């Protein structure tokens, strides 16, 4: 196919009047089909595994969302929960940043994140909120059924969501900058959870 034609197809996915970087390949795919929290829990049941769910409270950057979905897939999470408001939705940029993980991870889009946390707790998951004021992640039990709750890039966890969490967990830091990117922090916490699961 002619490069100019590929450039035209990818124009909506670029910026500054330039097309998205197609690298000579373009694929048409259906948009993501959102599911329910119950659908995510059903995946864990079908696999006979303790549920592991990532809940995102106010992640606004579609690239961060894609990065978190990618990490969730690599860490074996059963699904990701995002809000309908105050949240990025799955866009072409998200799919690209996820390296295709959006095709493999269940994504629930809910009206109310605090209610979703409550639903997960009723299903016997512990809710662990990522917060710099929390317990060191290596000293806090993350094994077993877990909802890992990650706050937004600027504000972190909302007050109500933090209150819904059973406990708060922090990543130890040794540098001068006070915080990590939300996507990076989510990935670190996911793999600490998996490390603890394997250590059982």
TrEMBL record:
Keywords associated with the record: Methyltransferase, Transferase
SUPFAM superfamilies: alpha/beta knot
InterPro entries cross-referenced by the UniProt entry: Alpha/beta_knot_MTases, rRNA_MeTrfase_TrmH, SpoU_MeTrfase, tRNA_m1G_MTases_N
E.C. number(s) listed in UniProt: 2.1.1.-
Molecular functions (GO terms): RNA binding; RNA methyltransferase activity
Cellular component terms per the entry's GO annotation: cytosol
Swiss-Prot/TrEMBL GO biological process terms: methylation; RNA processing
Family membership noted in the UniProt record: Belongs to the class IV-like SAM-binding methyltransferase superfamily. RNA methyltransferase TrmH family.
Protein's name in the database: Putative TrmH family tRNA/rRNA methyltransferase
Species this chain originates from: bioreactor metagenome
């Amino acid at each position: 196919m002619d490069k100019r034609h590929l450039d035209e197809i990818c124009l909506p996915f670029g910026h500054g009047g330039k097309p998205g970087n197609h690298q000579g390949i373009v694929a048409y795919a259906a948009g993501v089909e959102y599911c329910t929290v119950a659908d995510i829990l059903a995946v864990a049941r079908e696999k006979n595994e303790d549920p592991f769910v990532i809940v995102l409270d106010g992640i606004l950057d579609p690239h961060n969302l894609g990065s978190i979905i990618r990490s969730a897939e690599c860490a074996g999470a059963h699904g990701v929960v995002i809000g309908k408001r105050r949240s990025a939705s799955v866009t072409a940029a998200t799919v690209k940043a996820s390296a295709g993980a959006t095709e493999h991870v269940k994504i629930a889009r809910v009206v109310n994140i605090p209610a979703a946390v409550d639903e997960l707790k009723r299903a016997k998951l512990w809710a662990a909120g990522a917060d710099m004021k929390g317990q060191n992640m290596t000293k806090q039990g993350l094994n077993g059924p877990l909802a890992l709750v990650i706050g937004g890039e600027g504000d972190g966890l909302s007050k109500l969501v933090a209150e819904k969490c059973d406990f708060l967990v922090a990543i130890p830091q040794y540098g001068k900058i006070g915080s990590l990117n939300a996507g990076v922090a989510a990935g670190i916490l996911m793999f600490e959870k998996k490390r603890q699961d394997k250590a059982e």
